[in-house]
Design brief:
The complex is a heterodimer of chains A (188) and B (186). Chain A is built from 8 helices and no strands. With 188 residues, chain A is an all-alpha fold. Chain B has 3 domains: 49 residues, no CATH class; 38 residues, no CATH class; 63 residues. Classes of the chains: A mainly alpha (188), B mainly alpha (186).
Chain lengths: 188, 186
Amino acid sequence: MSRSEDAVRRFLAGEDDAFEQLVRQWESRIYNLAWRFLGNREDAQDVVQDTFLAAYRSLRTLRNPECFPTWLYQIALNHCRGRWRSRNSLVPLDGQLPDGQEVAEGAVQPNDLAAESRDQLETVDLLRKALGSLSEEHRTAIVLKEYLGLSLEEVAEVMECPLSTAKSRLYHGLRGVQRNLRRLGAKF
Amino acid sequence: MRCEEIKERLVDLLYDEVRTLHSDPELQDHLSSCPSCRQELEELGSTRAALSRWKDEAPLRPVNLPFLHRSKSAPRWVAIWPMARRFAMAAAVLLAFLALTNAEVSWEKGSFSFRTSLLPAAASGSNYYTKSETRDLVREALDDTESRVYETNYLMMQRVLDTMDQERWSEMRQVTARGNNSRIKN
């Protein structure tokens, strides 16, 4: 039995402290999922907060504690999509966010992260734009596979689609990132 | 094997979760002989390498859990409330059941007695009379009353006759006495 499964079972048995253990175990992964999906740290942090609040409210309806990771990813992705849509549509490649904010805002702040090199800042900005220009489905597949390290079957399970569809989304997502990076003049 | 078929399997090749390349010599042969497919696979691999340069970060701040702490410090009655609500529901269901089954609970001689029937209970003979029984009873009562009236009338008539008989005897005695007296005078 995994640590998460054990904590979920203890929470369902009435031990509220087990939920805090789940939060501390998963908040970093959920934050990084949202950070890659949205490309904005503050939004990602809000998504993490909303995700765990929603999880706390509905965890008692979870029938299979072993499915907790998939279930939590789905909640987080729903919140990511909602926040993404509220910020309008795709991030254009010309360096402007839909609401007119500078691309760098909410992404990587040199003052906040002094240790991060300029190259790294540029790399993250380029990747953020390249991912942000993909469709939600392609971006989700890339984030789940490349950044969360899920297996292809797990990606299909989280996205609630057949395995072949998950592979197709991943393939087209990678091709899309490749195309966007070229258009942005990235030299990787 | 055609290039189009290979493209469909590029993701399998790229992640190689089931060791696709090793388990499929035909695929391996095609890749070694087809520069286009090999180049596409390499480009996708480069894209993956580029994506991996976006490293994980720590969250800006820990998740705030006021809802969890609120439930911890909730007063005792808040914790009891769900149990009380369930108990009230169970009691309501039990009362409804008892009402529907015509249950009768009574306390007799230091113990409860419980009686129930799913259908409305038929009136028992000891407590209630049927219409025909009532009719018979009324008839008996009337008959009884009539016979009592007859009997009373008979007794009254008998007494009247007795009284008349006594009076006649009394008069006869008086007349007889009066005759004897006049004979003595004469």
